[in-house]
């Protein structure tokens, strides 16, 4: 299924979407506060989010999995699917691979497929939370933090191997997420486990190429339900500092206990120049991995407000590696990703609309009401015309989901790949 720029531009023309008048209305409104809509349109058009290779099939839960049909059965097909998303949106120009789920058999061929879709290789993800067939050491009781040296070494070697594959592909970063922890009190010594984890991470960091970054992801619980070694941003931050300059914390929106002030975490890490990666999703209860913006869009906006502030004011923080880390059981995976991309760009555009100068004045005057008004004024603005303009500017579909459905993409994929499919790695 190839979606060409010509097909998209024809659809855009024939559709006659009237967003231009709505954009003019926004331009007039913004002229009053010295914000340039053209500038926001350009920034939105430039924003690229990586798609993880594990989000392209219907996910499952421990209670089962229902096939969606037409799911990718190889890494090549996964790249083809991201190619569809990128052609439709021009904002999904990268993939984040998981090893060993996505070991490329032929690196040159995989690079060619990716290049044909203009897809770059973003962060590589290692996997030390599952034992693979023929594993020489077990991760049952942990990996980098395991009490047993053979398991720790095996996990370190795996991460070094992931770096090697990533180097060949042209990736520049490694994300480490550990399931390590304990299910019951007394099972592990907290200090020993943390020390082992720190030492192991340092060994991996020592094998990191000069131009690479390492991202350390945290999560409070699951699959361990009593304690997790890298449970929160503070632990990740501490470990990143122990490793060195090119080690950073990675924030995944679903990896917090309910009501955690994630925007404040973002601000603190960017202030310290240590926020490296970002995983988008949404949740009601735990690490639910729901569509971005589906549950708490205002929280997403407040988080983006801090991200934008950091991008504008914290040169000490590197450019962030953005990725969607969502999964679901009931939706068309590609439609779900299109919805996530839409929500991300909406929150980003709204955050760019915040009148920073007025906010600073209102904060200095302790005008609490005005501060809230300024933020909510941006949040309550319908920025969808900005997204449409950004898409048209970059050759994407003005309404990606509509085009996806009109072109019958899923039906074509089911015809090509079958109706009872299972994406590799799931
Ligand atoms: C597990 O919670 C997880 O979703 C993490 O967020 C990682 O980013 C991902 O799996 C892949 O390892
Ligand atoms: Mn994640
Ligand atoms: Mn997760």
Describe the structure.
GO terms for molecular function: isomerase activity. There is one protein chain. The protein is α/β, with parallel strands linked by helices. It has 16 helices and 14 strands. It has a single domain (47-347), classed as TIM Barrel (Alpha-Beta Barrel). The strands form four sheets. Strands 5-7-8-10-12-13-14 form a seven-stranded parallel β-sheet. It has a three-stranded parallel β-sheet with strand order 1-4-6, with no helix packed on it. Strands 2-3 form a two-stranded antiparallel sheet. The longest helix has 21 residues, at 149-169. One manganese (II) ion is lined by residues 252, 254-255, 287, 325.
The major pleated sheet works out as: 7 strands, parallel
N- to C-terminal separation? 23 Å
**Overall mean pLDDT score?**
96
CATH architecture: Alpha-Beta Barrel
- The CATH superfamily name is Divalent-metal-dependent TIM barrel enzymes
CATH fold title: TIM Barrel
Structural class, from secondary structure content? Answer: alpha/beta
How do the strands of the widest beta sheet line up side by side? 5-7-8-10-12-13-14
Bound compounds, please?
alpha-D-psicofuranose, manganese (II) ion
Low-confidence region ranges: none
Number of domains: 1
Radius of gyration: 22 Å
Number of helix segments? 16
**What is the string of SSEs from the N terminus onward?**
HHHEEEHEEHEEHEEHEEHEHEHEHHHHHH
Strand segment tally: 14
Beta-strand percentage? 5-15%
Helix coverage percent: 40-55%
**In CATH's first tier, which class applies?**
Alpha Beta
The best one-word shape is globular
Organism: Autumnicola edwardsiae
Keywords: Isomerase, Manganese, Metal-binding
InterPro entries: L-rhamnose_isomerase, Xyl_isomerase-like_sf
Protein name: Sugar isomerase
């Amino acid at each position: 299924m190839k979606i060409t720029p010509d097909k998209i531009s024809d659809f855009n023309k024939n559709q006659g979407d009237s967003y231009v008048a709505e954009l003019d209305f926004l331009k007039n409104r913004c002229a009053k506060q010295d914000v340039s809509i053209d500038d926001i349109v350009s920034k939105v058009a430039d924003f690229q989010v990586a798609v993880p290779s594990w989000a392209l099939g219907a996910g499952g839960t421990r209670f089962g999995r229902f096939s969606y049909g037409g799911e990718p059965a190889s890494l090549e097909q996964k790249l083809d699917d991201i190619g569809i998303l990128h052609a439709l949106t021009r904002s999904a120009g990268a993939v984040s691979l998981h090893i060993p789920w996505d070991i490329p058999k032929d690196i040159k061929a995989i690079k060619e497929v990716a290049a044909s879709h203009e897809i770059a290789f973003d962060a590589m993800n290692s996997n030390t939370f599952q034992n693979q067939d023929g594993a020489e050491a077990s991760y049952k009781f942990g990996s980098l933090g395991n009490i047993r040296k053979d398991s720790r070494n095996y996990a370190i070697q795996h991460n070094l191997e992931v770096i090697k594959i990533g180097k060949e592909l042209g990736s520049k970063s490694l994300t480490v997420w550990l399931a390590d922890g304990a299910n019951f009190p007394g099972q592990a010594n907290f200090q020993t486990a943390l020390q082992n984890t720190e030492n192991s991470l340092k060994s991996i960091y020592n094998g990191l190429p000069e131009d690479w970054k390492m991202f350390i992801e945290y999560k409070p619980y699951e699959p361990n339900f009593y304690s997790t070694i890298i449970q929160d941003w503070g632990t990740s931050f501490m470990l990143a500092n122990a490793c060195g300059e090119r080690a950073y914390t990675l924030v995944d929106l679903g990896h917090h206990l309910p009501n955690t002030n994630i925007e404040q975490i973002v601000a603190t890490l960017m202030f310290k120049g240590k926020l490296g990666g970002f995983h988008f999703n949404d949740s009601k209860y735990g690490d639910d991995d729901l569509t971005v913006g589906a549950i708490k869009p205002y929280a997403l906006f407040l988080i983006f407000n801090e991200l934008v502030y950091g991008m504008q004011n914290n040169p000490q923080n590197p450019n962030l590696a953005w990725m969607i880390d969502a999964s679901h059981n009931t939706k068309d995976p590609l439609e779900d990703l299109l919805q996530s991309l839409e929500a991300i760009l909406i929150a980003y555009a709204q955050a760019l609309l915040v009148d920073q100068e007025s906010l600073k004045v209102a904060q200095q005057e302790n005008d609490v009401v005005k501060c809230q008004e300024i933020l909510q004024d941006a949040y309550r603005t319908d920025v969808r015309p900005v997204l449409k303009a950004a898409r048209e500017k970059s050759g994407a579909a003005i309404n990606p989901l509509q085009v996806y459905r009109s072109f019958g993409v899923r039906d074509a994929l089911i015809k090509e790949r079958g109706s009872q499919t299972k994406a590799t790695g799931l």
